[in-house]
């Protein structure tokens, strides 16, 4: 494979496009609402009217998952929501002035217009099951460019200057991590893509893989070149069968096209990717536990340092990045560090994908530039809560906190969210209305952490169980003010002494709700 | 100096702590110069009196009588000492807790495993009802001093009582004073 | 070997390069509580009792796995650390069923010693009173999960010193249990050589010699380090 072949594939693919394209979301959300039969009926309906100027394309997630199955007709730009298979003929008929029986969505709604799509640029546009579709969208050109025109140091420099920070939760500067792995000595190095995604309610990474798997693979390959690795792993949870299937297909296709494997683009660069399927433990998303799991051991974290960048898989330097982090790489290479750094906020560049859920009109997946406020996301894009008022927004899942409505003008960036007692996290965002009891919310997350604690260190193992018990005492009216103080003390202890991020952040939902909604706790205690 | 009004209480325990108390032997005579024993299984007093200075509470809170008495003790006592492991942790008395509800347990013991004609103990007003679980004393009422040990050895009891008689802050540390078991 | 100098609790200490804070502290007679650490097997930094404060570091660091760095300023006994350690010990007592009075290890138990060291006169948390098994299927030894603190010393000594990996951990969080082989009864675990090293390694009354009665489980834990040293130096 060389550049001219790559461009030829793109050209051929584009030439095959028909004037009218009906895109049918076949990502998991819409699939579970019946998207596959919708797509089939659409194809049949096109065949029935014998129109060769129309094509039906299975594509990835369009974002408004709560209104699925979604069907989009281009170039007219009409979005149909809650489409049933029976609606298919009328959608085709509507091309000639008929009336479609499916409700129309509003593509000019802020839900769409306030988005800035970098990671999701191809989601809902290309066919994730065909590599040609990705190549036609410019795919793998960044990898070619890197391998032929840049040194590894130059690649790292671009990533560093872009200001990209890890999207897996902690926001560690990606360029810095790559540089550390590149500097570390080892007879072999590894690149690992963390697609464990265990936060309840989060589905950003799953959606990225289901909608645009090659982008992640390309990002990993670029990273491997930059740090000097020849083997990659994608660690996905078994609960994501569609993502795994699309990844497998994508890896096989890329290998067949010579875009993975030995001598990629004849540039003397070899990189293979294998999938490792995890059993769905939240803690296996923690990088050291993840690596233990890949090595075939029990997935429990170990103390850091040493960091994976120095001593990772089988003791060798290992780069661990999140799915979304890797998906940012090809656009950064394509458009340059300055372009990326011009998007977003001062210390948080680029965009962030959020899974917007909870008591809100428009749920789904959105990609917004860093620095937009929570209010814009919740009220404008999400359309506010259906009944009552917004009470709080939870970000960061079980590791994050609840931000009260009064702080909705907080901009979405790593530091601002931390200042108000939450975290960016991997991108879960749950909106709560005033019917929500915040002690119940804290309990929900604590139960999750207790169930997911690996049990290795005492503060987290026994502490989460004890915190959950104390929350239950509070909820059942059996706790005293002294118990409340003890709970707070226990939270601090677990936070400061736990071995890994799970325990260190498990108290956050309690601490943040205690900070902003203390009266709800106090109303429940006696004496 | 005014004499201390001392009480000793026997809740759900084996009386071992009281035996250990008696092991103070001749020091008991010295103690007697500082205290009046106003309530104790060792003395024949039916009603827990008012204005008790110090109460040594042996045993865990296991049944309704225990519950009633410990609340009374707390109300009428200045310094409540959880006396021995059963009072401090539940200990042997709480061995039944992991086994579930008391009714099922009683049934197993008195009916299923009975050698001859088993039947459930039932004597209202005489045999108090068991609580759902056995509780350490501090789970039911505030405790001022904890004296672990099963039983607390006599020298340990003496060291505590000496601190109490001397007045001032009570500090129990080290193997001699706070080792369990 | 290069020397490192640093301070622990304002005391100037010299240590060899690569030594951990715990090793250096012990050599100088400074007590840092430990539970999962055992001389002779790898350190896992799991129990968190040895956490110390290091000037300039926001995080508390486990002394058993943190190497000494030149001019490091370490504190082992601050108010915060004392309180946290006591809470950790209390959590352990509340988590399983520790009834010292009827325990084989009474008087020879590291957990009991730690409780004394941290000044635990009672447990402020509610006891969980879980239902735990006792396995006495092995002809010589037994395991009482009521007393297990999940330090994994048995797991490591069996794997790293005896080399047979009979023990491992199964389950998560509060449900985690040490298991023998594929969760068979110990007596049916084919890999066990009955060497007794796990019995030596266990800090509590969890693993015991059968027939031992209350307070009888004394053990010489230095033997593990002795065996390892003997092997490595080929005496
Ligand atoms: C309990 C726990 C769970 C985690 N789960 C994930 C996860 O599902 N996906 C992920 O990318 N990172 C997860 N992380 C963060 C990873 O440890 C690691 O920091 C991240 O993958 C690094 O990638 P990044 O630099 O691109 O963010 C988790 C961390 C903890 C402590
Ligand atoms: S903090 Fe929790 S999940 Fe992390 S190592 Fe400790 S027990 Fe395991
Ligand atoms: S293991 Fe130690 S602390 Fe637990 S009951 Fe036995 S002696 Fe007491
Ligand atoms: S007796 Fe020896 S071989 Fe058997 S489990 Fe214990 S350490 Fe392993
Ligand atoms: S059995 Fe003993 S050595 Fe093994 S984990 Fe439990 S307490 Fe530790
Ligand atoms: S899954 Fe179809 S729009 Fe998200
Ligand atoms: S001894 Fe260091 S963490 Fe257990």
Could you give a short description of this structure?
Chain A is of the alpha/beta class and 527 residues long.
Q: So what's the overall shape of chain C?
A: globular
Q: Number of domains in the coordinates of chain A? A: 4
Distance between the termini of chain A: 75 Å
Helix percent of chain C reads: 10-25%
Unreliable residue stretches of chain C = none
Q: Examine the coordinates and then state which fold CATH places here, giving the name of the CATH topology of the largest domain in chain C.
A: Alpha-Beta Plaits
Strands ordered across the widest β-sheet of chain C: 2-1-5-3-4
CATH architecture of the largest domain in chain A: 3-Layer(aba) Sandwich
Structural class of chain A: alpha/beta
Strand content of chain A: 5-15%
Greatest contact between two chains: A-C, 32 and 35 residues
Low-confidence stretches of chain A: none
Question: What does it look like?
Answer:
The complex is a heterotrimer of chains A (527), B (181) and C (235). By secondary structure, chain A is an alpha/beta fold. Helices cover 43% and strands 14% of the residues of chain A. Chain A has 23 helices and 14 strands. In chain A, the strands form three sheets. Chain A has a five-stranded mixed beta sheet, covered by helices on one side. A five-stranded mixed beta sheet of chain A has the order 11-10-14-12-13. Chain A has a four-stranded parallel beta sheet with strand order 8-7-6-9, sandwiched between helices. Chain B has 181 residues and is α/β, with parallel strands linked by helices. Chain B has one domain: NADH:ubiquinone oxidoreductase-like, 20kDa subunit (Rossmann fold, 3-Layer(aba) Sandwich). Chain B contains eight helices and seven strands. Chain B has helices at residues 16-22, 27-32, 64-76, 85-89, 102-112, 137-140, 154-166, 175-178; strands at residues 4-10, 35-39, 52-58, 61-63, 77-83, 130-135, 145-147. The mean pLDDT of chain B is 95. Chain C is α+β, with helices and mostly antiparallel strands and 235 residues long. Chain C contains six helices and ten strands, in the order ββαβββααββαββαβα. In chain C, β6 (134-135) and β7 form a beta hairpin. Chains in contact: A-C, B-C. The interface between A and C is medium-sized, with 32 and 35 residues.
């Amino acid at each position: 494979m060389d550049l001219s072949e790559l461009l030829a594939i793109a050209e051929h693919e584009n030439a095959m496009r028909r004037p009218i394209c009906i895109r049918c979301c076949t990502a998991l959300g819409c699939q579970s609402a019946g998207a596959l039969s919708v797509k089939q009926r659409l194809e049949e309906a096109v065949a029935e009217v014998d129109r060769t100027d129309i094509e039906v394309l299975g594509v990835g997630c369009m974002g408004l998952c709560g209104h699925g199955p979604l069907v989009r007709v281009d170039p007219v730009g009409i979005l149909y929501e809650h489409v049933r298979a029976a609606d298919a003929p009328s959608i085709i008929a509507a091309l000639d002035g008929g009336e479609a029986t499916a409700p129309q969505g509003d593509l000019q709604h802020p839900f769409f217009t306030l988005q800035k799509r970098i990671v999701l640029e191809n989601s809902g546009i290309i066919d994730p099951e065909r590599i040609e579709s990705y190549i036609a969208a410019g795919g793998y050109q960044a990898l070619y460019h890197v391998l032929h025109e840049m040194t590894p140091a130059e690649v790292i420099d671009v990533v560093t200057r872009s200001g990209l920070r890890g999207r897996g939760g902690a926001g560690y500067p990606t360029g810095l991590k790559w540089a550390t792995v590149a500097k570390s000595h080892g007879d072999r190095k590894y690149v690992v893509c963390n697609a464990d995604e265990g936060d309840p309610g989060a589905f950003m990474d799953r959606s990225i893989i289901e909608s645009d798997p090659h982008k992640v693979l390309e990002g990993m390959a670029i990273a491997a070149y930059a740090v000097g690795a020849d083997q990659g792993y994608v660690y996905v949870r078994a609960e994501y069968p569609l993502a795994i299937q699309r990844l497998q297909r994508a890896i096989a296709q890329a290998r067949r096209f010579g875009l993975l494997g030995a001598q990629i683009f004849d540039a003397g660069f070899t990189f293979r990717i294998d999938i490792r399927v995890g059993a769905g433990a939240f803690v296996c998303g923690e990088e050291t536990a993840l690596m233990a799991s890949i090595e075939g051991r029990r997935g429990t974290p170990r103390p850091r340092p040493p960091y994976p960048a120095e001593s990772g898989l089988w003791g060798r330097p290992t780069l661990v990045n999140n799915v979304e982090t890797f998906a940012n790489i090809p656009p950064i290479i394509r458009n340059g560090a300055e372009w990326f750094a011009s998007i977003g906020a001062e210390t948080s560049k680029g965009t962030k994908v959020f899974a917007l859920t909870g008591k809100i009109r428009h749920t789904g997946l959105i990609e917004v530039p860093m620095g937009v406020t929570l209010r814009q996301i919740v009220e404008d894009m999400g359309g506010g809560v259906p009944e009552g008022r917004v009470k709080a927004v939870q970000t960061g899942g079980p590791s994050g906190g609840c931000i009260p409505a009064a702080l909705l003008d907080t901009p979405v960036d790593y530091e601002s969210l931390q200042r108000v007692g939450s975290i960016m996290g991997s991108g879960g965002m749950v909106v709560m209305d005033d019917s929500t009891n915040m002690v119940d919310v804290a309990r929900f997350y604590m139960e999750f952490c207790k169930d997911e604690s690996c049990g290795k260190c005492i503060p987290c193992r026994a502490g989460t169980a004890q915190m959950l018990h104390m929350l239950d005492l509070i909820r059942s009216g059996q706790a005293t003010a002294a118990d409340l103080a003890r709970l707070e003390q226990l939270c601090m202890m677990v936070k400061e002494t736990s071995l890994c991020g799970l325990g260190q952040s498990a108290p956050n939902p309690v601490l943040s709700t205690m900070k902003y909604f203390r009266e709800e706790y106090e109303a429940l205690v006696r004496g | 100096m005014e004499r201390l009004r001392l009480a000793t209480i026997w809740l759900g325990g084996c009386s071992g702590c009281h035996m250990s108390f008696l092991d103070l032997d001749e020091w008991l005579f010295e103690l007697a110069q500082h205290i009046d024993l106003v309530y104790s299984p060792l003395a024949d007093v039916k009603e827990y009196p008012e204005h008790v200075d110090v109460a040594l509470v042996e045993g865990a809170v296991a049944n309704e009588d225990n519950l009633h008495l410990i609340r009374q003790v707390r109300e009428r006592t200045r310094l409540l000492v959880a006396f021995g492991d059963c009072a401090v942790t539940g200990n042997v008395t709480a061995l039944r807790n992991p086994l579930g509800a008391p009714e099922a347990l009683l049934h197993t013991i008195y009916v299923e495993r009975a050698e001859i004609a088993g039947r459930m103990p039932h004597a209202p007003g005489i045999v108090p009802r068991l609580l759902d679980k056995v509780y350490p004393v501090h789970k039911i009422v505030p405790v001022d001093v904890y004296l672990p040990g099963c039983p607390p050895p006599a020298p340990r009891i003496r060291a505590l009582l000496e601190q109490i008689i001397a007045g001032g802050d009570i500090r129990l540390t080290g193997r001699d004073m706070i080792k369990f078991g | 070997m290069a020397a490192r100098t640093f301070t622990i609790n304002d005391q100037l200490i010299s240590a060899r390069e690569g030594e951990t804070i715990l090793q250096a502290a012990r050599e100088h007679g400074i007590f840092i509580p430990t539970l999962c650490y055992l001389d002779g097997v790898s350190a896992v930094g799991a129990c968190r009792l040895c956490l110390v404060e290091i000037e300039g570091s926001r995080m508390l660091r486990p002394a058993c796995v943190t190497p000494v760095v030149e001019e490091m300023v370490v504190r082992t006994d601050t108010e915060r650390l004392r309180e946290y350690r006591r809470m950790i010990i209390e959590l352990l007592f509340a988590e399983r069923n520790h009834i010292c009075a009827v325990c084989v290890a009474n008087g020879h138990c590291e957990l009991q010693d730690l409780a004394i060291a941290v000044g635990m006169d009672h447990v402020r948390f509610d006891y969980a009173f879980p239902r735990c098994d006792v396995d006495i299927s092995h002809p010589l030894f037994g395991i009482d999960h009521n007393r297990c603190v999940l330090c994994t010393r048995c797991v490591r000594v069996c794997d790293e010193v005896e080399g047979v990996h009979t023990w491992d951990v199964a389950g998560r969080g509060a449900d985690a249990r040490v298991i023998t082989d594929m969760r068979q009864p110990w007596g049916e675990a084919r890999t066990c050589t009955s060497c007794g090293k796990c019995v030596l390694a266990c800090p509590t009354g969890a693993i015991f010699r059968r027939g031992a009665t209350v307070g009888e489980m004394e053990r010489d834990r230095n033997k593990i380090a002795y065996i390892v040293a003997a092997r490595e130096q080929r005496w």
